[in-house]
């Protein structure tokens, strides 16, 4: 699971609607990819990012990045490059995701997050 | 045609063996790639656009995702079969995949994706696999969640194999109820083999439905699927020829003797062999 995916994800249990993100990452194994910097993509994805999620990842993996959104400039190539490598090059292989709202833990195995809900959790949704 | 959704639920049907087919069977790969290419074409992403974020629903081993990667976009895929996703990881697909039942909606923040494609997945939602499943409710959750995760002006192209017209109606009605506009597009409506159903959905209103391929039936023969029909015709012709050759040997002396032996073994009452058995009759006057 890339950090980009993590940034887009949210817990979908009904009680977490609108507040089930950013998911907390626990990571026991990770790899670093080497993908080419893609200017267009980084620019397109920028407005969709959740900065609370970026902040957490930046702290967790010790990657310094400008977090003050008022100081960002899409002309600053250095900043975009850091952002791109944070989003696309860091991949969590094993670990888990925890919802900040309901504390549900989603395991990550072989790079695939398991987001399946159990029957009782869906039922919970229907009731509410 | 056999329907896998009648055999077992998707997470069980696409087991180790069935998933491996998707990485090794060139025919499956070719068909899937063709459909994904068509779906991507229907998304009508302008050629200048690059680096968009797309969702692949029921991504499986990531064949359809490869089409997106080739076009220079990023994708995230959801699938319910662990084995299929393992194949995707083995193939080192560029996008990210996750295990998720699409009938439970998507685990993403609202307005994340610029578009979505799905190849042969949503017909699975029409079946109740577990006691607590309700197809209508699951379809509703699916479309509602899809509507949420798409940006305004986003499009979703969902290719599926409906079992009957009731299913088409159930799926389309559910999509429209969730706020989508758009409708069903049928490629090659007059061909039983090349016929493909695409559900074209827009989150905005001001969109023009793309036109279907092969409506007048003339174009149809350009399709790969129909080449195959020609080939199988040839095969059938060849079979017919060998059969007629067989009937030429029919009623020769050897054939008659063989037949009498066979029937004797079956215990039937058979005339004794004589010098006249199987002999050619003289010319008739």
From TrEMBL, chain A:
Domain of life: Eukaryota
Keyword Nucleus attributed: yes
Pfam families xref list: Trm112p (PF03966)
Keywords recorded for this protein, A-Z: Cytoplasm, Nucleus
SUPFAM superfamilies to which the protein is assigned, alphabetical: Trm112p-like
An annotated Gene Ontology molecular function: protein heterodimerization activity
Gene Ontology cellular-component terms listed: nucleoplasm; perinuclear region of cytoplasm
InterPro entries: Trm112, Trm112-like
GO biological process: rRNA (guanine-N7)-methylation; tRNA methylation
Localisation: Cytoplasm, Perinuclear region; Nucleus, Nucleoplasm
Similarity comment: Belongs to the TRM112 family.
Name of this protein: Multifunctional methyltransferase subunit TRM112-like protein
Native source organism of the sequence: Dictyostelium firmibasis
Automatic annotation (TrEMBL), chain B:
GO molecular-function terms, A-Z: rRNA (guanine) methyltransferase activity
Subcellular location: Cytoplasm; Nucleus
Annotated GO biological process: rRNA (guanine-N7)-methylation
Extent of Basic residues compositional bias: 232-243
Chief site of localization: cytoplasm
Protein's name according to its UniProt entry: 18S rRNA (Guanine-N(7))-methyltransferase
Stretches assigned to the 18S rRNA (guanine(1575)-N(7))-methyltransferase Bud23 C-terminal domain: 201-282
Pfam families with a match to the protein in the record: Methyltransf_11, WBS_methylT
Coiled coil residues, start to end: none
Cellular component annotations (GO), alphabetically ordered: cytoplasm; nucleolus
SUPFAM superfamilies, A to Z: S-adenosyl-L-methionine-dependent methyltransferases
Cross-referenced InterPro entries: Bud23-like, Bud23_C, Methyltransf_11, SAM-dependent_MTases_sf
Domain Methyltransferase type span(s) in chain numbering: 55-157
Region (Disordered), start-end ranges: 216-285
Keywords: Cytoplasm, Methyltransferase, Nucleus, S-adenosyl-L-methionine, Transferase
Compositional bias annotation for Acidic residues: 217-227
Organism annotation: Dictyostelium firmibasis
Gene3D superfamilies listed in its UniProt record: Vaccinia Virus protein VP39 (3.40.50.150)
Chain intervals with Basic and acidic residues compositional bias: 251-276
The family this protein is said to belong to: Belongs to the class I-like SAM-binding methyltransferase superfamily. BUD23/WBSCR22 family.
């Amino acid at each position: 699971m890339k950090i980009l995916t993590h940034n887009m994800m949210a817990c979908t249990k009904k009680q977490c609607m609108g507040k089930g993100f950013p998911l907390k990452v626990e990571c026991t194994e990770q790899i670093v990819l080497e993908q080419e910097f893609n200017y267009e993509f980084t620019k397109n994805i920028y407005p969709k990012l959740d900065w609370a999620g970026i902040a957490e990842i930046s702290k967790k993996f010790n990657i310094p990045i400008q977090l003050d959104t008022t100081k960002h400039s899409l002309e600053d190539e250095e900043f975009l490059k850091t952002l791109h490598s944070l989003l696309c090059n860091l991949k969590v292989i094993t670990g888990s995701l925890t919802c900040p709202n309901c504390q549900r833990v989603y395991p990550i195995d072989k790079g695939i997050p398991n987001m399946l809900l159990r029957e009782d959790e869906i039922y919970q949704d229907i009731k509410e | 045609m056999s329907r896998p959704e009648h055999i077992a639920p998707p997470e069980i049907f696409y087991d180790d063996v069935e998933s491996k087919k998707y990485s090794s069977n060139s025919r499956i790969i070719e068909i899937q790639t063709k459909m994904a290419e068509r779906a991507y074409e229907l998304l009508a992403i302008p050629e200048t656009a690059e680096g968009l974020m797309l969702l692949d629903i029921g991504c499986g081993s990531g064949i359809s995702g490869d089409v997106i990667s080739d076009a220079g976009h990023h994708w995230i895929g959801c699938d319910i079969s662990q084995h299929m996703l393992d194949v995707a990881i083995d193939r080192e697909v560029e996008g990210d995949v996750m295990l998720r039942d699409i009938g439970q909606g998507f685990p993403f923040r609202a307005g994340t994706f610029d578009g979505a494609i799905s190849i042969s997945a949503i017909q699975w939602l029409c079946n109740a696999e577990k006691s607590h499943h309700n197809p209508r409710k699951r379809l509703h959750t699916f479309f509602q969640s899809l509507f949420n995760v798409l940006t305004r002006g986003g499009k979703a192209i969902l290719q599926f194999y409906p079992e009957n017209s009731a299913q088409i109606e159930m799926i389309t009605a559910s999509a429209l109820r969730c706020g989508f506009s758009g409708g069903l597009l049928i490629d090659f409506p007059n061909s039983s083999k090349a016929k493909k159903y695409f559900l074209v959905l827009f989150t905005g209103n001001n969109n023009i439905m793309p036109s279907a391929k092969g409506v007048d039936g003339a174009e149809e023969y350009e399709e790969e699927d129909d080449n195959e029909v020609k080939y199988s015709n040839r095969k059938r012709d060849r079979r017919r020829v060998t059969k007629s050759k067989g009937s030429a040997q029919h009623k020769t002396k050897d054939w008659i003797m063989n037949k009498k032996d066979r029937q004797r073994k079956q215990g039937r009452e058979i005339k004794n062999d004589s010098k006249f058995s199987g002999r050619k009759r003289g010319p008739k006057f």
